[in-house]
Amino acid sequence: MSISTLTGDGGETGLLGGERVPKDHPRIECLGALDELNAFLGDARAAAPKPRTGKILLEVQKELFLLAGIIAAPARAHKPPEPAAPMPDDGELTRLVREFEETQPVRGFSIPGANPVSAKLDIARTVCRRAERRLVTLDRLDGVPEAVCRYLNRLSDLLFMLARFEEN
Fold first, then answer.
1. In angstroms, rounded to a whole number, what is the distance separating the alpha carbons of residues 140 and 97?
2. Residues near 47 by Cβ (< 8 Å), separated by ≥ 6?
3. Which residues of 81-99 are buried (b: 16+ CB within 10 A; e: fewer)?
4. Each residue of 70-89: pLDDT tens digit?
5. Do 80 and 105 form a contact (C-beta atoms < 8 A)?
6. pLDDT value for 8
């Protein structure tokens, strides 16, 4: 199977299940933001000198593929509200945030760019927030499992804390 299907030349793309939608559909916008986030996380992971950061980011990248699979399905596939696919655990993200807060207390705003890796993580955080905004739009229009929204919200917090961790 070729990656070049020739079916998107007219400005449409396919969802899981075969439904065709415009490439600027809110579901595709959300998927694009998740894809971009995953790429930025890969960049940060490749540059991270601390093994713990790399391990956490790799797990998050795998979980983002699960989220993208859920988002790529048409909304009617989510009725009942939660998908049948495995859902990444936002509770683990919360636990990690709390753990990092104990060793890296937040004392106000941080100016991004303390070092190359923390800067990459701050970029990933802002892309995560954009993905979350796209998800909120999609949820309003088409419905999204609540757990997906929670995951991205927690992830932006974790990326903030990882950036602070990499600064020390």
1. 28
2. 116, 117, 120
3. eebeeebbebebbeebbee
4. 998 876 554 444 445 567 77
5. no
6. 64
Q: Which two tokens stand for residue 87?
A: 């859902």
Degrees to nearest 5, angle at CA 26 with 37 and 157:
35
Q: Decide: 40 and 123 in contact? Cβ < 8 Å.
A: yes
- What is the torsion angle, in degrees rounded to the nearest 10, for the CA atoms of residue 131, residue 35, residue 110 and residue 136? 10
* Contact (CB, 8 A) for 90 and 150: yes
**What predicted TM-score, i.e. pTM, was given to this entire model?**
0.87
**What CATH number does the domain located at 19-103+111-167 have?**
1.20.1200.10
CB 33 within 8 A of CB 127: yes
Other residues' Cβ atoms within 10 Å of the Cβ of residue 4: 6
CB 162 within 8 A of CB 100: yes
pLDDT tens-digit map of 101-157: 999 888 878 889 999 999 999 999 999 999 999 999 999 998 888 999 999 999 999
- Residue 13's DSSP bridge partners are 21
